[in-house]
Amino acid sequence: MPTAASKCLIQVTAFSVWLILVGSTFAWLTLYGSMPGPPSDVPESWPSSTEINRCEGQQHLLVFLHPECPCTRATLDNLQPLIRSDDLQVTLICFGDFQPQSNNSLGGCYRELQSWNDRPQVTLVSDVTGQEAERFGASTSGHCLLYDREGKLVYNGGVTSSRGHRGANTGLSILKSTLVEFDSAESSYPVFGCPLLEKKPEDLPLDSPPSLDPPECCEGRFHA
Amino acid sequence: MLSKILFPQYSGLDADESATLHREELAANARTNRLFAVLMLIQGLVAFGLSLVITPQTWAGEASSVHPHVWGSAILAILLGVVPAYLGWFQSQNPLTRYVMAISQASFSALFIHISGGRTEVHFHVFASLAFLSLYRDPLVLLIATVITAVDHLGRGLFWPYSIFGLSDPALMLVIEHASWVIIEDAVLLVGIYSSLREASTRCRDQVLHRRQHQNLNQAIDQLRPVFDLAAQGDLTVDIPDVRDPHVKSLQTDLDRTIRSWNHVVAMFSQSVDNVTASSSHLHSSSTNLSQGIEIQSESLTAILTEVEALHQSIHSIRENVRRAEAATEAANSMAHQSETSLAESEQSMKIIEESADQMIATVGTIQELAKQTNMLALNASIEAARSGEAGRGFAVVAQQVKELAGHCDKNITLVTQMIQQTRQHIQTGVEKSSRTTYQFKEVCSAVASINAETSGIVALTQNQVDSAERLRMQIANLREIHESTQQDGIQLSNEGDILEQLAHELRECVHQFKFHADKSEIQTTA
Question: Where is the segment annotated Disordered (chain A) (predicted)?
């Protein structure tokens, strides 16, 4: 028969453990959501090896997406207000054999992609084997690359502030500035989303995970 | 000071009132905990369901696995939903449970805001949560939830603003704005909570006061209970104990007056019951006697009726006999008249016979003369025969025989004459007797006529008697009917008398169950 003191101690201990577990779970979810995709080498100019046609004299936005990734919806929602200009050509490169009519799995973004496909300046491309993603160095769903009229890379990064979080963020602001003003202090932002390609053991980084620290230009404006 | 702020309801209460309030709060918190247990389960299921719908899987190329959000929401559904629900349902009396509920509810608010990407609408979950948590009427619960919400808003608002406000830049002003609304709601809720706690405190004080009054009342009632018990058992001689409680004092006085009043009423009632019992006994005996008298009268009436019927029957028989006698006298009268006529005719015949006898006597005289002449002739013949000698001898014998015959004839005629004379005398006697008989018959006829007249009178009288007897019989029959009705009434009266006597006895037994003082002297009656 436990005494009142020991009973109180047990209760306080259990309460503390519960608090720690709750805090840890929240911290784990926060860390998971805040973990950007690995950095990659992106060609500074339009690669010649790509099968995607670039419209001459127009800005070209490439958005690499995984149609099954739940984070894709936030990326599309954030990009929605930016696709206004006739001067912008958008290509959505969907990983895998993309069949929007025949697939409507839970968590997927097929309906949204189909509605995007109906837009005149938007082109949907199926990247069956992920070759295009490799050509452009995109490794994470939601990776956006903006090439100017000359085919030069002017923006490289994501448009969400964490996995699946729609709403204003620095990356979106940079892209908007670049599109409208053709000029921005920054040109890159971390990408948050599912990996587009399966990680092979040899591809796994041996160094520490990339830092969430923003570039120097964003200091004071971005907090990971 | 802190306890007065956190637990203001206990200030100014004594130990008993505090214990009562604590018990009430435990019960109220238990109810609220169970309510929150259900709410936590629902929120946990919603969070887990949303993760399954929105982010079921994470992908790496063509490979997929369960999304960490699913695992995270499952873990949080257990930690923030199942664990508090378990505590709320099975540890509802534990004070720690409501603080767990406060933390869980604030965490759910943080989670839903995070999941929604900081949508403004979801921030209302915070306000709803605070309003729900105010059901505990515990400022500390509200304080814990507010602190968690404030830390969450401040931390994420400064370091991860898109998670809580959907913004990229730190939003201290938004944090302050949201905090202001939370502070306003907290202030309103705290006003309500403190008001409710004050009401609870007042109610508990009143409750304890009522309980104490109730205890005092119970003590006083316990003092009076034996009086009621004894009074219920019929003892009205019990003494009323002195009661201190002012509320029961009037009851004690009223009870004393009531017992005294009952005692007086029961004493009077007992006396009345005794009188009723005696009267009912008299009534019973009188009704029994009356019933017996009625029965005897009934028997007498029956006998009288039987006698009257017999008298009626005998009068009827007499009347019939008289009628037959009248008929007989009439027949006798006619027979007498006929006999008188026959007697007259017989007398006439007797006179004729007498005349015939006289004629026979004359005739017999003649015959006797003839016999004498014959005898003379025979004598002459015998003389002549003697003169004629021998030749006349034959004549002498014949003359002798004729002489003997004449002698015999004369003798016989003498006898006949004597006989006729005797007959004539007899006839004369008969005529005389017939005359007397005729006279007597006339007398008889007149007597019969008078008898007939008398008999007619008797018939008329007997007819009157028959009518009178019939009327008498009818009157007796009516009298008997009335008497039978009276007899029924008498029987009923006797039965009612029996019932009344039985009721009087029962009433007496009931009254004898009471133990009471007679007017001045104590008379104890026990049943």
Answer: 203-224
Q: How many domains does chain A have?
A: 1
- By DSSP bridging, strand A143-147 and strand A153-157 are antiparallel
Please judge whether B168 and A169 are an interchain contact, meaning their C-beta atoms are less than 8 angstroms apart.
yes
Q: Where are the alpha helices (DSSP H) in A60-109?
A: 71-79
Tell whether B168 is within 8 A of chain A (Cβ): yes
Q: Could you say which of B68, B100, B167 has the minimum Cβ distance to residue A15?
A: B100
Cβ-Cβ contacts under 8 Å, A29 against chain B: 68-69, 72, 76, 114
User: Token pair for residue A73?
Assistant: 């919806």
The mean of the pLDDT values for chain A is 80
- Which tokens go with A45? 């100019």
Q: What is the pLDDT of residues A51-91, one digit of tens each?
A: 888 888 888 999 999 888 888 888 998 898 888 767 789 99
Nearest to A77 by CA among A122, A112, A123, A118: A112
* Distance, CA of B53 to CA of B363 (rounded, Å): 190
pLDDT tens track for B313-370: 887 788 788 778 778 777 877 877 787 788 778 778 878 887 888 888 888 888 888 8
Handedness of CA B28, B31, B33, B36 (dihedral sign): negative
The boundaries of the domain holding residue A111 are 59-197
Pairing of strands A59-65, A143-147: antiparallel
* CA distance, residue A60 to nearest chain B CA (Å): 25
Are the beta carbons of B144 and B79 closer than 8 angstroms? Answer: no
Tokens 């053709």, located at residue: A182
- Please choose, from the candidates B375, B365, B351, the residue with its C-alpha nearest in 3D space to the C-alpha of residue B427: B351
Distance CA B1, CA A203 (A): 63
In degrees, to the nearest 5, what angle opens at C-alpha B113 toward C-alphas B110 and B117? 135
